[in-house]
Amino acid sequence: xxxxxxxxxxxxxxxxxxxxxxxxxxxxxxxxxxxxxxxxxxxxxxxxxxxxxxxxxxxxxxxxxxxxxxxxxxxxxxxxxxxxxxxxxxxxxxxxxxxxxxxxxxxxxxxxx
Amino acid sequence: xxxxxxxxxxxxxxxxxxxxxxxxxxxxxxxxxxxxxxxxxxxxxxxxxxxxxxxxxxxxxxxxxxxxxxxxxxxxxxxxxxxxxxxxxxxxxxxxxxxxxxxxxxxxxxxxxxxx
Lengths: 113, 116
Prior knowledge:
The complex is a heterodimer. Chain A is an all-beta fold. Chain A has strands at residues 5-7, 10-14, 19-24, 30-38, 45-50, 56-59, 62-67, 72-77, 86-94, 107-112. By secondary structure, chain B is mostly beta strands. Chain B is built from no helices and 11 strands. Chain B has strands at 5-7, 10-13, 19-24, 31-38, 42-50, 53-56, 65-71, 74-79, 88-95, 106-107, 111-115. Chain A binds chain B through residues 32, 34, 36, 41-46, 49, 51, 89, 91, 93, 98-106, and chain B through 3-4, 31, 33, 35, 41-45, 48, 50, 55-56, 91, 95, 98-100, 102-110.
């Protein structure tokens, strides 16, 4: 079991604001970090898989960075829209070869129109 | 393409009753996962299979939970007897060839279980 921390637990922003949140994980034996987006009553949807220190990924208005040496990743949303309201989950995977992900408790984002 | 299919989507049951959750993975996927989402624990892995064989069930309470995968396209998660603390969203997920090379896992929409 990995100790994965996400902060903040919840966040309310106004439409049009940019926002970011953090995923912290053990840096030892790091292999990859997965980000997922989950809207209630829908399937969690994969956003990014990141593997390299310094990696930066982008999908529309959402981007993420990765620091494997210090064990954290930031997720940024530029110009938040109401449809961005969801829970954002991160899950690191270690180099042990085990094919499972240990998820954080997520950051619940609410974008107010 | 059909994604991961779970049933039932919602179930309300009385404490002590048996509950069976069902999952059909994406066709051709050889890994299948069962996760549970609670407010306190977040998404926790209960069990996962590779080619129908249990690879890790250390997260599953074995006194009341059991998971089976009788064939490549079907899996069940059974709770007997159910307790109020089992109330959660149960997700099934699948992937092809594991999580190497940047693969990701694909989730179903979840089974929302309430035990009263």
